[in-house]
Amino acid sequence: NVNIIPDSLNESEDEHSVIIFLKDLTEIYKTQQFKSDFVANVSHELRTPLQSIKLGLETINDGHASNDFEMQKKFLPIMMQQTERMENLINDLLSLSKIELQEHIRPTTELDLKEIITHVIKLNSELVKKKKIKIENNITDDTYKISGDRNRLIEIFTNLIDNACKYSDSDTVIKISLVKKMDTILFSIKDQGVGIPKKYLSRITERFFRVDPARSKDAGGTGLGLAIVKHIVNQHRATMDIISTEGKGTEFTIEFPKV
Ligand code: ADP
Which of 167, 174, 190, 205 to mutate to test the pocket of ligand 1 (most atoms within 8 A of CB)? Predict the structure, then answer.
């Protein structure tokens, strides 16, 4: 963007000069592009399940099928699943927008990470059992105090345990640990799942980025989980690292500052 303004301060007749303002609009265009990509992604993510629900309703509502209970039995579970998918997406979008606004507000409540993680493992025990996955809780008896927001931390651990299950096969093990370091506490969750190709590692916390979209969607994924995790990690002034080997498994570590 270039604005050229005649230099009215220069009164001399034979010397014509101008002041040129240069403004780099790259960042503004980038933000606009980001916003419009986001809206396009959200619309697409909502339209797909909506179309599937609409098709189910049209079929059931059709003159021939309205008394066909077999047909209804076939379509109702699909419609339920797609409704749940839309609900998950809306919940994640709300969560993401809230955490983005609060990211700069550092939580100050003193909390014990061991208590929170044990609670989340219990909350997810049904999901884990259903998939015949074993969670190995290697957290030793101690207190692991940080300054945090309990509900947000529950969101982090729920997302990471949920992902470890979604991207692992049955009869595998998920190992969870906490290690006290000098100034920090190191949380780790390690699975024996499909792993993440190296070239995608830097992108998996982006909104709607999925390595295998079909697997994510079949498992009820929204593509927003890790984006939410990243913001909560930032809010806690923590750092997250991901180590992964394709076909072998993935380890997420988060290093929280101690109180
Ligand atoms: P989703 O709802 O798709 O799981 P996330 O934001 O939680 O969205 O994760 C983004 C992508 O990162 C996933 O679609 C998947 O491809 C990959 N991913 C996340 N966690 C794991 C994991 N533990 N093992 C393998 N891939 C993973």
Answer: 167
Measured between alpha carbons, how far is residue 114 from residues 43, 72, 78 in Å? 39, 47, 38
- Cα–Cα distance measured from residue 37 to residue 199, given in angstroms and rounded to the nearest whole number: 22
Give the pLDDT of residue 67. 80
To test the ligand 1 pocket, which listed residue (41, 169, 196) has its Cβ within 8 A of the most ligand atoms? Answer: 196
Q: pLDDT category, 234, cuts 50, 70, 90?
A: very high
The single-letter code of the amino acid at 152 is R
Q: How far is the CA of 249 from the centre of ligand 1 (A)?
A: 12
Do residues 82 and 55 lie in contact, with contact meaning Cβ atoms separated by under 8 Å?
A: no
Share the mean pLDDT of the chain.
92
Question: What is d(CA 247, CA 191) in angstroms, rounded to the nearest whole number?
Answer: 11
Atom 11, ligand 1: residue with shortest CA distance: 210
pLDDT tens readout for residues 198-227: 999 999 999 999 999 999 988 989 999 999
Tokens of 181: 């370091």
Confidence of residue 2 (pLDDT cuts 50, 70, 90): low
Neighbours of 218 (CB within 10 A): 11
Strands 134-137 and 249-257: unpaired
d(CA 9, CA 3): 17
* 221 DSSP β-pair partners: none
For the CA of 159, the nearest atom of ligand 1: 7
> What was the pLDDT predicted at 7?
59
